[in-house]
Amino acid sequence: MPSGTHRVAVVGVGQTAFGALPHPPRALLRQSIHEALASVDKGISPQDIGEGYLATLGFGGWQIGNPASLLGEELGLPGLPVSHVENACASGSTGLRQAYHTLLAGAADVALVAGVEKMSDTPSARRRYWLGVSGETEWERLAGLTFAGVYALLAERYLAERKLTTDVLGAVAVKNHAHGALNPHAHLRKPVTMEQHHAAASVADPLRLYDCCPVSDGAAAVVLAREEVARRFTDTPVWVVGSGGGSDFLALQDRESLTRLPATRRASDEAFRHAPFGREKVQLAELHDCFTIAELLALEDTGLFPEGEGPRATTEGRTRLGGALPVNVSGGLKSKGHPLGATGVGQVCEVFHQLRGEAGERQVKGAERALTHNVGGSGATAMVHLFST
Amino acid sequence: MPSGTHRVAVVGVGQTAFGALPHPPRALLRQSIHEALASVDKGISPQDIGEGYLATLGFGGWQIGNPASLLGEELGLPGLPVSHVENACASGSTGLRQAYHTLLAGAADVALVAGVEKMSDTPSARRRYWLGVSGETEWERLAGLTFAGVYALLAERYLAERKLTTDVLGAVAVKNHAHGALNPHAHLRKPVTMEQHHAAASVADPLRLYDCCPVSDGAAAVVLAREEVARRFTDTPVWVVGSGGGSDFLALQDRESLTRLPATRRASDEAFRHAPFGREKVQLAELHDCFTIAELLALEDTGLFPEGEGPRATTEGRTRLGGALPVNVSGGLKSKGHPLGATGVGQVCEVFHQLRGEAGERQVKGAERALTHNVGGSGATAMVHLFST
Fold this sequence. Notes:
CATH superfamily of chain A: Thiolase/Chalcone synthase
CATH class of chain A: Alpha Beta
Strand order of the largest sheet of chain A: 3-2-4-7-1-8-11-10-9
Radius of gyration of chain A: 19 Å
Structural class of chain A: alpha/beta
Number of domains of chain A: 1
Helix content of chain A: 25-40%
Distance between the termini of chain A: 22 Å
Largest interface: A-B, 61 and 61 residues
Shape of chain A: globular
CATH topology of chain A: Peroxisomal Thiolase, Chain A, domain 1
Oligomer: homodimer
Order of helices and strands of chain A: EHEHEHEHHHHEEEHEHEHHHHEE
CATH architecture of chain A: 3-Layer(aba) Sandwich
């Protein structure tokens, strides 16, 4: 890395409610962008935006190719340089990483990153294809493995290796549902008990209904600015202070382990390499919990907890709001919802509000440093970002 | 832009032949990546690569989600931070722009950009969808307009406004076919005459068969390095010295003009803003000629020729190999072929060989400065890049 600053400011965020919504993707996108612009404390004009990134899988095939141009249309800036980025469920954080690099390079002063997905009105066969295609195709999807089935294999191996019961999965579900119940933007605003978790239908053994995130619609947008111009837009920016990426084999069978995601490890190591603080200083984390097992994997793969500590930290309540390191206080993908392309951008919205002390009932007291983690597919791509006040 | 250098080196390139090929996309990708690595003069190890970008539309739906992870798999580096980028037919140059920013930011020393598309074995109904979706959907594709039909509207208006005949379209076709006949990697290695052009079947009036690029398979890859490390890999790098992007309304009906592409104008202005040379110094250009009319538009929208000069420059032979400013000496999309995601990356391969004097029969003598131009859809996105020895 060159000398000089590695900071970029988040100066505004916007997010639709996540859920089964009647709106088309373009309307969701519009709402999130306009909210993000309106949220900038000292005001911002669309003309201030110098580059745009759109994160979406175009779930179900939403009939629009070349979709990044919608950013310019919605901003009233039909000239804006734009890019469509996509890394399966990690698309949102991939857009964030691109924007971060572009601003560090000085190629623009201000960038917009928006993510959107419309999943709820897709016929179920098509939905299975679009979910399954984010895993591996030849040996997994076409052999009949669903996407929940892929994570079920990881969960089964994890529980067996560590001699644990599904109570630990239930503990993640109960916690994230409790958090999501406090979030007005969450898809599932409904606490669940351990008894409800255990009694729910099996989706892919050992994963039951409350181990799985919902199928959500939604959009999120963030406005980022170079450090040199950030104070023109707000006196209380939230700084992006680290970005890391990683990848892995698509197929589970090609990987060394079923209970570690090396893509997350690589991403986390890179993010912390140049960051102004270490893992022990992180005060809240939004981790990719598309299934409860994914949060357990991420607790250790990010290095936030030492190897073997994730389950105990969870069952002891250390990752709960009020615990030593609250994880997914937004509700996470599990309860807040998972509109694929919007998810990684929505994590930044949560962190922005938390680090500015604006998170209401789910505020992590005194939070100054946060981590976001976003996984593509079953771990073939991953991104980690670090934030501070 | 910050002070300091804005140069990034191209240190290696690889490209499959373009054409109707039997290979699956992954095999094409592999070939282009391995050729790019092997082409680096002083050698390179996959471990030197710090970030990867994959450009593809996944034409026809090639059954692999999260495809950027294939870059790591093919390099034997299943940890590499990777991103899948997509701006319709401008995807390849969008990957180049991202990599350029990432290297300027110092986030990596070396990056790989690869593009791939497999189009030839897609059923025709599906092909119509995938081609059409790059234009506008609600008012164009679903109303029955084909993608050739979109460009035919532009051509019709252009010829009418300028009081020209289809001879000027034919002149582009004849020139680019003559160039492509000299390129061993071209899809259509076949000169055509003006008589053949005029006698060919109408595709979408006024566009005839030889006005349209073929449906091609292929892949291309380039290795880029920060200036600080470039000499470790070669003594004769080709420098990327400018990058510009632009966008526009998706639908033709929303645009101010049918005979200008403002996205190209915005992209070209940005690329030249910080470049060490002006438009008058460009010695060869690879312009996006998916249809012959597209090259005519680009001649002026890039600013390489003054408004109104494009047709005469073409018919007088100024854009031919041996002319004052040869355009599409590779054969262009028209004759070299247009495997969507690979196209913008393939343009860089051509420029690399030209600026190093390695282009054989189609060498532009003494070429030291070049421009590439890549359009998404009917102009809703566009990228322009500048190169020098």
